[in-house]
Amino acid sequence: MPATSGECDILSLHPPAEAITALLDGTHADPFSLLGVHPGPQGAFARAILPGAERAEAFALDGTPLGVLKRVDPRGLFEGPVAGPPQPVRYACQAGQHSWDVTDPYSFGPVLGPVDDFLIGQGTHHRLFDKLGAHVIDHEGARGVHFAVWAPNARLVSVVGDFNDWDGARHPMRRRSDTGIWELFLPDIGGGRPYKYRIVASDGTVQPYKADPYALAAELRPHTASITLDAPPHAWGDAEHRAFWEKADPRRQPISIYEVHAGSWRKPGDGREFYSWDELADQLIPYAVDMGFTHIEFLPVSEHPYDPSWGYQTTGLYAPSARFGEPMGFARFVDGAHRAGLGVLIDWVPAHFPTDAHGLSRFDGTALYEHEDPRQGFHPDWNTAIYNFGRREVRDFLINNALFWAERYHVDGLRVDAVASMLYRDYSRKSGEWIPNAQGGRENWEAVDFLRAMNQAVYGTCPGVMTMAEESTSWPGVTQPALDEGERPSSLGFGFKWNMGFMNDTLRYMARDPVHRRYHHNEITFGLVYAFTENFVLPISHDEVVHGKGSMLGKMAGDDWHKFANLRAYYGMMWGYPGKKLLFMGQEFAQRREWSEARALDWDMLDHAPHAGMQAWVRDLNRAYAALPALHARDCEGEGFEWLVVDDALASVFAWVRRAPGHAPMVVVCNMTPALHDHYRLPLPHDGEWREVLNSDAAHYGGSGQGNAGKIVAEDGAAFVILPPLSTMMFECQIKAE
């Protein structure tokens, strides 16, 4: 803050020699106390560092001359009286035949104010992404960039970039002691400028130059600087889409998610590594719409340095990756998806962060974002740092990021990665490698409080946006409202939870030779014991087709024909099973190779009939799932499901009915053996005609063409039906709605 007039009289006329040296070296802890324009007994007095200048004249921003400053140090220090009150000034500099103008950043007041300090101190500031980071603004009559960064334990912070030759002595920042935030307004620069922070730790050591935690854009790897962004707000055209989801109950809507790694769905043929967001929009959006998916879910789109991390080790949570072009391209993609009727979800990673030198690791010389003790702050599975969820500022950083993606880029939801690793202090740790909580238990209550607060903020301020937890344990209440009930509430407040048990059990079953499946019947039926304890998503994700796990086709039992038949039957069972659906890219056409981020999907597989048939089957499953409410409207409620055949282990047949009030019921029948049952007695909830809606064995999909000529008729509570080999069939009641 500016010095008082008495202080200024002393400091402006007779600053100590060591203070001048510190100013010129860029090591003065409070450069605003000496630099800029200050009031004094004889009027205003200015002091500025103008490297290379021989003469300097001060002007008001409107061009009014204010006075000529005297160079008092050959290293570029100028000072002298100026006319008028303290105000922002611009210096006209000369050296020989050269002249240039410099607007003095130290003549401007702070941008952040007491309201910001109060809300930050309370931990209730939900607009930090508008305050911290780098923002192009108009301030006190000048246009420039306001930089702000949290580094409470730093001795000194400077902003460096191409605008000051990456010289840490040029632009030390103002410290706001109440919050530990450092800020500086740099006039006359705009968007597209690379920058970092030079941080001097409390012990005097200089940290590796740090990227901005709140940066809105970043350089393309291997470069690591943050980029100032000056992009006009996107003109959104998705009001109808957002209005629908704001009013809808997503549990009762069809949700079929196409999980996509943006860098490898397809690749350009012109030598570039990646398509831009606009190019992806032209291809991916119509494809997903044609395939009947309701949502696209992207693996993390935030900036990250290492391609094989797939974005799960991010160093720029607020910056869409530069791999796909400028950030507003992602906004255009989301808008285009919404106009086409598609939602967009993103994978979000608040569980951990990489220890790259330019990132958050020991940001101000201390364990600022992470824990000091590696038993709490280091993740052994991924060699990453774990966020300190008990620290208010860290929680705010993450919660604000969740709100940022919902507000700035209109994403429809966040799939939160690795929730199980957050909930337990002993996750992937041996005895002695973790610290119990205050009660002596393994629960990470700080992480629980963070997740609850995040979900409360998202659902409280972003109507229509959903959250999904990748959580693989039996933690109670993952999708129960995060209400403050009891002394230690455990409900987390997510909208949905990935059903990892379904995925593990059913894939284990499908890998078995059909002759042995009768002995493992419960691997299909057991999931219905807990199917309605949470709001579940059934995930066949990227994790199932990497790191030696092969492809979905490769997981199936039998020869090639049997593998395709098994996979069609499996998808049919999954789409008829209660829960929302998720399928990773490439599995809709049964890609044979394991997925790799380094190459595009094997689209040439679609030239072969079995793969084209699989794609057609998934397309028809999606369309039926969306069109027939009985298949989706009670995905998360037990009233929508009833077993019809649950104990026919010998024949490996399963059958159940799906219901929704006011709509015709649907019956799903699975025959998980290669045997054709041509006279199978199928119990049905209503007599009369049932239309055969889908049959995975249809020749159109690559099957043997067995079926029921389009319909069956029930009498006395049952019908005799043909069950094709390795098939799933769906029947719709034609008599009445329930």
TrEMBL record:
Protein name stated in the entry: 1,4-alpha-glucan branching enzyme GlgB
Recorded family membership: Belongs to the glycosyl hydrolase 13 family. GlgB subfamily.
One Gene Ontology MF term: 1,4-alpha-glucan branching enzyme activity
Claim: Cytoplasm is one of the keywords in the record: no
Gene behind this protein: glgB
Subunit: Monomer.
EC number: 2.4.1.18
Known role: Catalyzes the formation of the alpha-1,6-glucosidic linkages in glycogen by scission of a 1,4-alpha-linked oligosaccharide from growing alpha-1,4-glucan chains and the subsequent attachment of the oligosaccharide to the alpha-1,6 position.
Every Glycosyl hydrolase family 13 catalytic domain range: 259-634
Organism: Novosphingobium capsulatum
Keywords: Carbohydrate metabolism, Glycogen biosynthesis, Glycogen metabolism, Glycosyltransferase, Transferase
Pathway: Glycan biosynthesis; glycogen biosynthesis
Active site: D417 (nucleophile), E470 (proton donor)
